[in-house]
Amino acid sequence: MSSSVLVTGSSGMLGSAICRNIKCSPTLGKHKLLTPSRSELNLENQNEVLNYFEKNNIEIIFHAAAKVGGIKANIDFPADFINKNLSINSNVFEAARQFNVSKLLFFGSSCIYPKDAPVPIQESSLMKGELEQSNYAYSVSKIAGITQCNKYAEQYGCDFRVLMPTNLYGINDNYEKNNSHVIPALISKFYMAVKDSRKEIKIWGSGNAVREFLHIDDLVSASFKIISLDQSDYTNLLSDNNVTHLNVGSFEEISIHDLCVLLKKISGYDGEIVFDDSYPEGVMRKTLCSRIINSIGWKPKIELIDGLDDAYLWYCNNFPNLRH
Could you read off the pLDDT of 217-228 as tens digits, one per residue? Predict the structure, then answer.
């Protein structure tokens, strides 16, 4: 039986980007690519996961599946966010152990860090302060995932690796009204404002919050860099820096106000942008320190303005088929 690469969450932005880029990889492209849909594999069902692993010779896993959403969804459905993510991760990790998967790469989220962590945030800031309350449950599920990966490595010798990306964006993002993150939410707002000739767009928060954004294809290139390392090289990278995971960021900060100005220009919107600071906007500044992954030769290549152009064009071309 030929060996396989499993991409969980392959229909999402990250999973689909991994699949898109694997085909061009001289090493990963040699493997059979497994991209099961939810109807084919329910990751919340332990028996289904174990049966799927038993039937497939899985060598590498890019574990991109997760229940995700924006501030409103995290506030409204905290139990769903923690329960579903804990279940998904536990089932995948245990199946990977039982069926001797060679390598697994788990993707976290920058929300794992304390809301008052010094910026740029280093990996060592984990568990050093209070989490942001608006996405507390989701953050805890990601922290648990990091811990699981490291303890599976410690107890069983599993080669489970962890990347912690900053805020992501790109083509095939999630545009559902109650679940989208900031860039897709704003792209949708500006597109509809132009389409309906609206005179005003209302934005949650003051516009002063500062964020770092990373194009999804840059995260994929970092993923391929990390998965290509020998296990000893990866573990030495962690131990030499006394960390449990690696940050992946773009080094490029922008305020929500300036992000809106960029999207106004890209979309051609000529109305007014109104910021409403009665709504939550999360921590005021969040940028990651990516020094460690930079030290092994990885750097992002896609500038924010270019990535936003592509993302907005993709949205325009796919608007009729998107869920909102």
Answer: 999 999 999 999
